[in-house]
Write a structure and sequence with these properties.
- This protein has about 240 residues and is α+β, with helices and mostly antiparallel strands.
- The protein folds into 2 domains: about 35 residues; about 190 residues, 3-Layer(aba) Sandwich (Aminopeptidase), CATH 3.40.630.
- The chain is about 35% helix and about 25% strand.
- Strands 1-2-3-4-5-6-8-7 form an 8-stranded mixed β-sheet, with helices on both faces.
- The longest helix is centred in the N-terminal third of the chain and has 40 residues.
- It is globular.
- It starts with a helix and ends in a 6-residue tail after the last strand.
- Bound molecules: coenzyme A (COA).
- Coenzyme A binds next to helix 2, strand 5, helix 4 and helix 5.
């Protein structure tokens, strides 16, 4: 009867997700093993001896840290290098900051100046002021983003701030941002405060996910005096 075959289709549709459940469990186990393997590989780091500086700043002298993230397909690994930027890298950072400014303008409403550039007022400070650390990021050898970090002393204790953080669009949603952020936090073990503008919901979700996973949920969320969302945590405690 035509009515019966219609019923069979409905029954099959309802039963199928249950039939696929073992496959989904297997897939998630494979993903977890892959992540563990990549973490193991990321133990192999390139280092040069660091000079005597504030303990929180010594790690920043690393020439490069190799980390890996699996691509969106879950099979192709990306090699991620987080490299301290020298003054010679200033023009590169200035260019990447323009791309960042354009992305961020959607949330903070910034405009370009008369030369068609956003500009970044504090860029030179990263090579003239103590406590500031610029990093360039390469994925498989190609420029893919940056992180600008400041360690400020607040009530006698140094607190890390991620002043700007950027992953180029091509490399997003593949885990690169998380690898870079963890890398930066590892270089400066101790107290951190990351803030995001109230409109930048993707960034808020990103930092909540990264900090949540890294600290196993031990962080404090709040708002600063200008309404930005803030997450405070200790990067020396937690999963890594
Ligand atoms: C925010 C940004 C750095 C994220 O980089 P990314 O490499 O795409 O992030 P990841 O792939 O490592 O994401 C890690 C987790 O963050 C969350 N996340 C990242 N981007 C997200 C988005 N657009 N929406 C919702 N959640 C997001 C997810 O939980 C993700 O984990 P999952 O993919 O397993 O679900 C990147 O989108 C960017 O550079 N944006 C423009 C500049 C910016 O806003 N910087 C932050 C300023 S505070």
């Amino acid at each position: 009867m035509p009515g019966q075959s219609w019923l069979r289709v409905v029954a099959w549709r309802i039963a199928t997700p249950r039939r696929l459940a073992p496959l989904a469990r297997w897939r998630s186990r494979m993903r977890a093993s892959w992540t563990r393997y990549m973490r193991f590989l990321s133990c192999f780091r390139l280092r040069r001896p660091s000079s005597a500086r504030h303990p929180r700043e010594q790690e920043a002298d690393d020439v490069g840290v190799l980390s890996f993230a699996n691509g969106s397909s879950g099979t192709d690994a990306m090699m991620i290098n987080v490299l301290p930027a020298s003054i010679e890298d200033r023009p590169v950072l200035a260019h990447l900051l323009e791309l960042y400014g354009h992305d961020i303008s959607e949330f903070d409403g910034r405009d370009v100046g008369e030369h068609g550039l956003y500009g970044y007022h504090y860029l030179d400070h990263y090579w003239t002021e103590p406590g500031r650390h610029p990093f360039l990021v390469r994925v498989d050898g190609r420029l893919a983003g940056f992180a600008l970090v400041s360690i400020r002393v607040l009530s006698d204790e140094p607190v890390g701030h991620v002043s700007e953080f950027f992953v180029m669009r091509k490399y997003r949603r593949m885990g690169a941002g998380e690898v870079i952020a963890r890398d930066v936090f590892r270089r400066f073990p101790g107290r951190w405060r990351v803030s995001q503008s109230s409109g930048n919901l993707p960034a808020q979700r990103f930092w909540r996910a990264v900090v949540g996973r890294m600290t196993l949920g031990v962080y404090t969320e709040g708002h600063d005096e200008v309404g930005r969302t803030t997450l405070e945590f200790d990067s020396s405690a937690g999963a890594d």
